[in-house]
Amino acid sequence: MTTDDAYGGGKRTQSREAQASPEGQSDFELIDRFLAGDMSAFDALVQKYQQDVYRLAYRITLSADDAKDLAQETFLQAYRALKGFRRRSSFYTWLYRIAVHLCFHHRRRSARVEPVAEVPESPAASAQPLHDLLEAEQRHAVATAIAALPPQQRAALTLRVHQNLSYREIGATLQCSEGAARANVFHAIQKLRARLAGFGEDG
Amino acid sequence: MRCQRIQPHLLALVEGELKQSKREKVARHVAACPACASAMRSLRQTLRVVQAIDVPEPSPAFWQEFGTALHQRMRREEAAHQGRRHGQLWGLFRLPKPALAVVAVSLILVCSLPFLGGHLGQQRIPRMILSGGDEVSLAANLDFLKHLDLLEEVDVLEQLDPSP
pLDDT, tens digit, for every residue of B9-63? Predict the structure, then answer.
């Protein structure tokens, strides 16, 4: 199922698997090469997914340092476990599952107060300072509202909105049913709508 | 359709995931209902602003350092894995001392079985053949039997055999 209408991200979900590595090989072909002893194939997989995994970890942990460590740990776990990957799902679903599991585990272990996400600054000052100020305020409010979501809902939301996964893939990643994945996204958006009611109603 | 029944489907409508028949019903209601139309606008706006929040872009050196550190960890992992395989062979010698002693004694016993087996075998044969009183009789006539052996060796039994 495409998510084009809502998120404008293109059919990344369907085409991601077909996205070739720089050498023109699919994920499963790269895995076969790695299992045959070719380490460069694993490097190609890392190159292909490192940004996605880092961004996913960042959006769940809301910390750049934690996201970097957890992204590395994700690939290390994948390196250890790739031999046992049964290919019942796509490689990236499997990889995201590892990442999400590590992020949740990290969060439970650290047991600290959730930090407010670091919101990127706008690229440059424009001729509309008031507009920029409102935009910065809005971005901060959105980041704070997202940070306040329960981790499962935050993960489901980012897998849907930013990673463009189908609900079935989100269910596989979060190890819950498709319906539960749908409910997590729905509740996350409802909460955000309530918290951001004052912003951008002119939409 | 009532608004309460429509609103749970608004997200699916925005995402383009409703089946055609359902989509037409929901869209018709939204077009005629200001409350649901407002909810739909709010939903779209929320999704838009959530999507616009991006992750702070790491510095250019970040990914290079990321790859280097990952490779180092993978090499350590590989070395540890090989060490574990090697260690399985030598792991026997890292057993606790009592266990090691038991293993050593077992090995000695197993290695000496062929030698013990022959010796024990020789002793077992008479025990299997002889019973109770025969053993006592054998002990009493040991000297005689020794002589008998000697006589056999020098082949003089026939000389002792009384002639008819």
Answer: 999 999 998 999 899 999 999 999 999 999 999 899 889 888 888 888 888 799 9
Amino acid residing at B3: C
Rounded Cα distance between A118 and A91, Å, is 30
Instruction: Give the distance, in angstroms, between the CA of residue A130 and the centroid of all CA atoms in the same chain.
Output: 32
CB contact under 8 A, B50 and A75: no
Q: What is the ipTM of this complex?
A: 0.76
Separation CA B49–CA B46 (nearest Å): 5
Considering only the beta carbons, identify the residue of A59, A79, A193 that sits closest to B55: A59
Which residue in B has a C-alpha nearest to residue A157's C-alpha? B50
CB A189 within 8 A of CB B11: yes
pTM over 0.80: no
A residues 23..82 contacting B (CB < 8 A): 43, 46, 50-51, 54-55, 58-59, 64, 67-68, 71-72, 75-76, 79-80
Q: How far away is chain A from the Cα of B53, in angstroms, using its nearest Cα?
A: 7
Contact call for residues B1 and B35 (beta carbons, < 8 A)? no
Whole-angstrom distance, CA of residue B128 vs CA of residue A125: 108
Answer whether B164 touches A (CB < 8 Å). Answer: no
Task: Tell me if A76 and B17 make a contact (CB, 8 A cut-off).
Answer: no
Tokens of B96: 């606790």
